[in-house]
Amino acid sequence: MDIDLLFKIAGIGILVAVLNQVLTKAGREDQAMMTTITGLIIVLMLVITQISNLFETVRTVFKL
Amino acid sequence: MDVLKILGFAIISVILIVVLKEQKKEIALIMTIFACVILMLFAMTKMESVIGVIESLINKSGINKDFFLIILKVTGIAYLIEFGKNICIDAGQKAIATKLEMAGKVIILTISLPVISALVNVISGLI
């Protein structure tokens, strides 16, 4: 039940959303797109370790 | 006591996802996946002890063990397929969800073939 990881992801998401708004207002759409993609990659990295953990647990529990 | 933990976790993650839904759909989707993964992990640790008890019962009773293994595999596959299917539906991809479900059913069918053939042998033996 590590809820702090969830808060971390939400924080990154909100940060990216705000940065996006600021950058689009400043007229730099390409950098806005870049921050979106980097934010997405960071969040994905966090989640992928949990997903592989889940699949490994399911594999051992159900003897797949 | 665990129920409160699960409930709190689910409600908090739902609120955070709704906050993020307008600006960043993709990160909101990743958060739903993350919440589903955490809840399933929680369920898995509980499931492990249940399956251990069932297995010891079956060993004691002397029933054929490999049928139980097939049942275990089928439930595991069903669990995973349902997990993936709901995430695809959440993301709005109904077509992928139905195809995933169909593929899961085919896999379950192939795994349970020995059970079916054993059943047919028993029946033909009776007649």
Descriptive overview:
The complex is a heterodimer of chains A (64) and B (127). Chain A is mainly α and 64 residues long. Helix content of chain A is 89%, strand content 0%. In chain A, helix 1 (3-25) packs antiparallel against helix 2. The longest helix of chain A is centred in the last third of the chain and has 34 residues, at 29-62. The radius of gyration of chain A is 16 Å and the shape is elongated. The mean pLDDT of chain A is 91. Chain B has a domain at 64-127. Chain B has 127 residues and is mostly helical. Chain B is built from five helices and no strands. In chain B, 11% of the residues are buried. Chain B has helices spanning 2-21, 25-61, 65-90, 94-111, 113-126. Chain B is flat. Chains A and B meet through helix 1 and helix 2 of A and helix 1, helix 2 and helix 3 of B.
Unreliable residue stretches of chain A: none
The percentage of residues in β strands of chain A lies in under 5%
Rg estimate of chain B, integer Å = 20 Å
| Cα-to-Cα separation, first versus last residue of chain B | 54 Å
Tell me which protein chains meet in the greatest interface and how many residues each side has. A-B, 34 and 36 residues
Low-confidence stretches of chain B: none
H and E string of chain A = HH
Distance between the termini of chain A: 25 Å
Strand elements of chain A, count = 0
**Structure classification of chain A:** mainly alpha
What does the largest sheet of chain B look like?
none
Secondary-structure topology with pairs:
The complex is a heterodimer of chains A (64) and B (127).
Chain A: H1 3-25, H2 29-62
Helix pairs in contact in A: 1-2
Chain B: H1 2-21, H2 25-61, H3 65-90, H4 94-111, H5 113-126
Helix pairs in contact in B: 1-2, 2-3, 3-4
Question: What descriptors fit this protein?
Answer:
heterodimer, A: 64 residues, mainly alpha, 2 helices, B: 127 residues, 5 helices, 91% helix, flat
